[in-house]
């Protein structure tokens, strides 16, 4: 007897049975042992036709969703319409949805309440990067999550130029923190001559933190070494900086 | 911190005050350091100082016209109750201060005899000399360049600062007048000596600027070339042979056979004519707990994917063995490394014999975070993937025993004599992972522990980041990190904290990019499902090549292999910290010849769990009789099946 398969669909899976043989030549799973004949049930998941019901246990619900979507990705559309619940449930739902997002689904999901949590469904998807939300969402928390999502894919962004343009605007108009982050972003992309000039202007008008950030961005972004050195000398003489920091910079310069 | 207050902080942090989380994280970290300092490090430091001072008793210094004898050393008075701590710990830099607040003072008292030649005469005085060190404090600081948040680098290492004042006092009034006159000069001399010592350290710190740097990450990427064997049948066969040959006493070990074999896994696993020989010995008991935990996880995934009854029975067997490991030392939660009856085993270094369940067994006095990691990882995975209520109950109980012990002992595991065996301080990712595993199995019991620890998410990047300074040696540390991050990020449901954990995980992942590690890749795929598509080709090919590896440990040297480019590797600084000695040490790093890019999986040396070994090593040893269980195939294989790597 080779493989006698008896397939029974039960609760979303096919349970198949085959005989395990004492003769090792007929049982590929057997390893050098003779075993009594036994029936081995092995389940093969069938595509799910409906979504699992929400659970109070968000982690278990997230696992259920992921398993359901793996067998039937089309359920993502229904899940987007059901994007509702507490913070933990929505977070697990968004992560489960992430591999199945496309432009249409992203648009519909972001139209639901709790855009901050919906954004987690866009993680790792440079083609769906939430640039517009990063640019103009009125809620600073939503913009912060958008920045997190963007940071994961910044190397692969198809609309990289748009983000960098936005960063240039933030260098001029943002809070100190946003200016520093935006200068870092420009530096990580490699500074263009206009960027160097922009950062130099920002240095002149900025707070001590911004001045430090500006020089760091010039150094990291490939500005001419002599220019960076000139600014480091200015920082070493900057009375607004802590003496310890000035000393460190002076030592770095060999002064 | 109460849950209500915690929620208030979450709201503040969510509203944009990111510093609130960072401050809470630093406070928690400093509290843990203070606890360790009070319980262990300060007493150890005091004892070490007393021992050191006692070595001066009876010593003699001859300086020509002045001779000094230290007749007696009195017990010193130390005021060092405040521990060192972090004053800054974020993406822009790290600052440490010792102590975190206030100052330390030391009062050292000696009875001395001084003999001084004045003209033709020797004048001898015996008096008590007190050396009072006041206002002692030290600081260290590094500035980080985090313009690439996934790869922070050291931009500046500030010279360490040490400040203190020295006052000398004797029981002779006229000597006190003299010492008062000379105190400024003495302080100046001491300052100069300290400054000179620090200057001597600076050249060793200089290479840290620009670190850490990746290694071996720019090699070619793998493509899937199609299956050459039934990969699932191989996985089932490995589980069968683990049951038959690798669990002689309940936990998983390596097996020595009486006949050598020099073929591959693929050639033998499904070959009905293959005979492994008879087991004549076993090895790897020291790591039996960690690999049994990984095996449990593998069987949990296998059961979830196939429903195979053998997977469930094996999971039950391991869950039972783990309950033994967790209890057999007599303190529930204090883990043993293996189940080894006496005889045939006899105690060696750091081992003792104790009764358990009617017999004598070997107890490993030294337990490590590694073993706990494997057991937590396995039980937490089994709890979620095995639907059988009895298995769930066992996993829950195992996790509760361990976490109760670790929380009660403030993240320290002890030897029998009360000294520290291992501690989790600075390993915030592991703390969070195991607390989350506990909350997962018993939410109401561990909600408080969760809210006490969750803030550490913000600084959990510290440990993996430090480890990436050496991306080759002690590579097993990365396996510990992946198992911990997998458990943590799988179970964390609050996005505010998950985001911080994921940022830390990305630092680890970027440093090991392209290291061709099926298990690490699957850990990432498990917590970041959007990465699955990108790993499909690579993981399948890695598993296929795994089956083409030598089944047994054999001797070979790849340094002359024309297909492998070699290079010399040396990390910037060698560093280790010994909790029991309470001391850190740095040492020179000897360059070693390694492969420039990851060695193809099929050529890598035989070992216990392939993915915890660096992929750059060139040599292997063995005579063809020692065989590892093969968990390094079945764990990533069944994870890959579960997470959709295989269609």
Provide an overview of this structure:
The complex is a heterodimer of chains A (255) and B (647). Chain A is built from 13 helices and three strands, in the order βββααααααααααααα. Chain A has helices spanning 58-71, 75-81, 87-97, 103-110, 115-118, 131-136, 140-151, 160-173, 176-189, 193-205, 208-220, 225-236, 243-252; strands at residues 6-10, 13-20, 38-45. Chain A is mainly alpha-helical. Helix content of chain A is 54%, strand content 8%. In chain A, helix 9 (176-189) runs parallel beside helix 11 (208-220). Chain B has 647 residues and is α+β, with helices and mostly antiparallel strands. In chain B, 43% of the residues lie in helices and 22% in strands. Chain B has helices at residues 3-14, 18-54, 173-205, 231-245, 265-269, 288-306, 309-327, 369-385, 389-408, 428-441, 443-453, 462-467, 476-491, 495-511, 518-527, 532-547, 631-642, and strands at residues 60-62, 66-73, 77-79, 85-90, 93-98, 104-118, 121-145, 153-170, 254-257, 279-283, 351-356, 359-364, 412-414, 420-423, 552-557, 566-569, 574-578, 583-587, 592-595, 619-627. In chain B, the strands form six sheets. In chain B, strands 1, 2, 3, 4, 5, 6, 7 and 8 form an eight-stranded antiparallel beta sheet that branches. In chain B, strands 10-9-20-15 form a four-stranded antiparallel beta sheet, with no helix packed on it. In chain B, a hairpin with a 5-residue loop joins strand 13 and strand 14. In chain B, helix 1 packs across helix 2 and helix 10 packs across helix 13 (476-491). Chain B starts with a helix and ends in a 5-residue tail after the last helix. Residues 1-18 and 576-584 of chain B have low confidence and may be disordered. Chains A and B meet through strand 3, helix 1, helix 3, helix 7 and helix 9 of A and strand 8, helix 4 and helix 14 of B.
């Amino acid at each position: 007897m080779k493989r006698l398969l008896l397939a029974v669909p039960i609760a979303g899976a096919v349970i198949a049975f085959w005989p395990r043989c004492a003769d090792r030549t007929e049982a590929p799973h057997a390893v050098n042992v003779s075993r009594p004949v036994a029936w081995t049930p092995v389940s093969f998941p069938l595509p799910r036709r409906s979504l699992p019901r929400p659970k109070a246990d968000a982690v278990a619900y997230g696992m259920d969703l992921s398993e359901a979507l793996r067998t039937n990705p089309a359920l993502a559309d229904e899940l987007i319409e059901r994007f509702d619940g507490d913070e933990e449930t929505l977070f697990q739902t968004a992560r489960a949805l992430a591999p199945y997002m496309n432009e249409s689904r992203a648009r519909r999901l972001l139209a639901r309440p709790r855009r901050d949590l919906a954004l987690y469904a866009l993680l790792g998807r440079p083609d769906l990067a939430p640039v517009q939300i990063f640019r103009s969402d009125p809620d600073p928390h939503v913009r912060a999550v958008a920045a997190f999502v963007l940071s994961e894919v910044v190397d692969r962004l198809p609309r990289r130029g748009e983000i960098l343009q936005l960063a240039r605007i933030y260098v001029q108009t943002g809070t100190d923190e946003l200016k520093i982050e935006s200068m870092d972003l420009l530096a990580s992309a490699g500074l263009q001559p206009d960027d160097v000039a922009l950062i130099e202007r920002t240095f002149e008008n900025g707070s001590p933190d911004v001045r430090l950030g500006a020089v760091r961005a010039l150094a990291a972004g490939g500005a001419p070494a002599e220019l960076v050195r000139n600014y480091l000398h200015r920082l070493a003489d900057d009375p607004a900086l802590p003496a310890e920091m000035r000393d460190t910079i002076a030592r770095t310069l060999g002064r | 911190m109460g849950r209500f207050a915690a929620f208030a902080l979450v709201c503040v942090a969510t509203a944009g005050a990111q510093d609130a989380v960072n401050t809470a994280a630093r406070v928690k970290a400093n509290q843990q350091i203070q606890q360790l300092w009070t319980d262990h490090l300060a007493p150890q430091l005091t004892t070490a100082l007393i021992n050191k001072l006692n070595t001066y008793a009876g010593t003699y210094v001859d300086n020509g016209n002045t001779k000094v004898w230290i007749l007696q050393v009195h017990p010193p008075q130390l005021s060092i109750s405040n521990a060192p701590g972090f004053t800054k710990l974020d993406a822009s830099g790290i600052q440490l201060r010792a102590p975190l607040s206030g100052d330390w003072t030391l009062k050292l008292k000696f009875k001395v005899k001084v003999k001084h030649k004045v003209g033709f005469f020797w004048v001898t005085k015996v008096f008590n000399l007190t050396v009072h060190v006041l206002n002692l404090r030290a600081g260290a600081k590094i500035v980080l360049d985090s313009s690439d948040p996934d790869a922070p680098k050291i931009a500046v290492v500030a010279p360490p600062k040490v400040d203190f004042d020295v006052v000398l006092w004797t029981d002779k009034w006229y000597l006190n007048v003299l010492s008062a006159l000379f105190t400024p000069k003495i302080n100046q001399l001491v300052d100069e000596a300290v400054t000179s010592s620090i200057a001597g350290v600076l050249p060793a710190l200089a290479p840290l600027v620009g670190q850490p740097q990746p290694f071996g990450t720019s090699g070619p990427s793998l493509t899937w070339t199609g299956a050459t064997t039934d990969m699932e049948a191989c996985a089932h066969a490995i589980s069968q042979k683990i049951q038959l040959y690798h669990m002689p006493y309940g936990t998983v070990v390596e097996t020595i056979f009486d006949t050598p074999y020099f073929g591959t896994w693929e050639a033998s696993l499904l070959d009905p004519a293959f005979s492994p020989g008879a087991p004549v010995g076993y090895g790897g008991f020291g790591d039996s707990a960690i690999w049994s935990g990984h095996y449990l996880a593998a069987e949990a995934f296998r059961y979830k994917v196939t429903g195979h009854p053998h997977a469930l029975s094996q999971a039950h067997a391991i869950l039972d063995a783990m309950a033994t490991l967790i209890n057999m030392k007599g303190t529930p939660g204090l883990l043993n490394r293996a189940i080894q009856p006496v005889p045939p085993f006899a105690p060696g270094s750091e081992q003792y014999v104790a009764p358990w369940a009617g017999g004598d067994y070997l107890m490993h006095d030294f337990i490590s975070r590694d073993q706990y990691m494997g057991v937590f990882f396995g039980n937490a995975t089994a709890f979620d993937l095995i639907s059988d209520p009895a298995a769930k109950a066992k996993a829950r109980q195992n996790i509760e025993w361990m976490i109760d012990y670790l929380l009660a002992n403030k993240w320290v595991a002890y030897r029998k004599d009360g000294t520290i065996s291992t501690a989790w301080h600075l390993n915030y990712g592991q703390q969070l992972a195991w607390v989350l595993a506990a909350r997962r199995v018993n939410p109401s019991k561990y909600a408080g522990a969760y809210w006490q620890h969750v803030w550490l998410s913000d600084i959990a990047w510290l440990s993996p980041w430090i480890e990436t300074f050496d991306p080759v040696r002690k590579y097993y540390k990365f396996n510990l990190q992946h198992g911990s991050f997998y458990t943590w990020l799988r179970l964390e449901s609050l996005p505010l904290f998950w985001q911080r954990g994921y940022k830390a995980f990305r630092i680890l992942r970027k440093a090991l990019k392209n290291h061709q590690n099926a298990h690490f890749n699957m850990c990432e795929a498990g917590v970041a499902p959007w990465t699955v598509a990108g790993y499909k080709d690579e993981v399948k090919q890695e598993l296929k090549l795994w089956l083409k590896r030598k089944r047994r440990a054999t001797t070979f040297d790849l340094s002359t292999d024309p297909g492998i480019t070699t290079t010399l590797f040396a990390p910037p600084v060698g560093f280790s910290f010994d909790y029991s000695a309470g001391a850190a040490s740095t040492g020179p790093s000897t360059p070693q010849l390694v492969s420039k890019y990851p060695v193809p999986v099929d050529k890598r040396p035989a070992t216990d769990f392939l993915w915890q070994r660096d992929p750059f090593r060139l040599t292997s040893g063995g005579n063809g009789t020692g065989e590892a269980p093969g968990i390094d195939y079945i764990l990533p294989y069944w994870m890959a099946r579960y997470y959709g790597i295989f269609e």
